Amino acid sequence: MNVQKIKKYSFQMLHTRINPLFLKRVMRVFTLLSLISLPVLAQSAGKNSDECPAGVNKEPCHNEKSRSTDLNPRQTLKGVITRVRDGDTFEVNGIPIRLAALDCPEKNTFEGQYATHMAKKYTGANAECELTGAKTYDRLVGYCKVDDTDFGKMMMMNSACKVWEKYDIWNRY
Q1: Helix (H, G, I), strand (E, B) or coil at 70
Q2: Helix, strand, coil abundance in the chain, percent, nearest 5
Q3: How far apart are alpha carbons 6 and 70 in whole angstroms?
Q4: Which residue of 49, 81, 85, 158 has the smallest Cβ count within 10 Å?
Q5: From CA 173, how far away is CA 153, in angstroms rounded?
Q6: CATH number for position 131
Q7: Which among 56, 48, 55, 62 is positioned nearest to 136, based on CA atoms?
Q8: Residue 23 included in any domain
Q9: Measured between alpha carbons, how far is 104 from 110 in angstroms, rounded to an integer?
C-alpha cells in the first residue's frame, strides 16, 4: 500500500459515521462491566510494605493472627536469611520475620527501594531473631541480629528506615 492510499483510507475512517444506537449500546455495556468489576478491583488493591492491605492502618494489621507459622512465640530463631521481602521483612530458613520497631519506607518509593537493596545485601547471612510473640499476617515479629549486628539499628543508620516507637515493645531503640 502506498502513502497516498494509506492517507485516503485514514481520512475515510475518520469521517465514517458511527451509528448512535450502536454507540449507546457500547457505552451501556462498558458502564455495566465497569460497575461489575469495581468490587474485584477493590479487593485486589495489593499490599503495602508491611504486607498489610493497601489503605489499611498498620496497627490493626499487626494485631491479626497468622495461621501459617507453627513456631512458638517468645523464642529465638536462628538460621540463614533465605529471602528479603523489603527493608523491614525477611525470611529466616523460609520463615517470614517482620523486624520489630523498624519502619521502612514503602517499597514503591525510591527510599523504600534503597532500603530493600540494603537489606538484600544480607541474603545468605546468619540471623538470630528474638521473637516478641506478635504476629502480622504470615510473619512473626522479632528483633534480629545479622552476623552479630543489630539489623534494625544497621538499617536505621544506613537507609531511610527509622524507629517505630509504638512497636518497640522491648525498648531496644
Answers
A1: coil
A2: 35, 25, 35
A3: 67
A4: 158
A5: 8
A6: 2.40.50.90
A7: 62
A8: yes
A9: 11
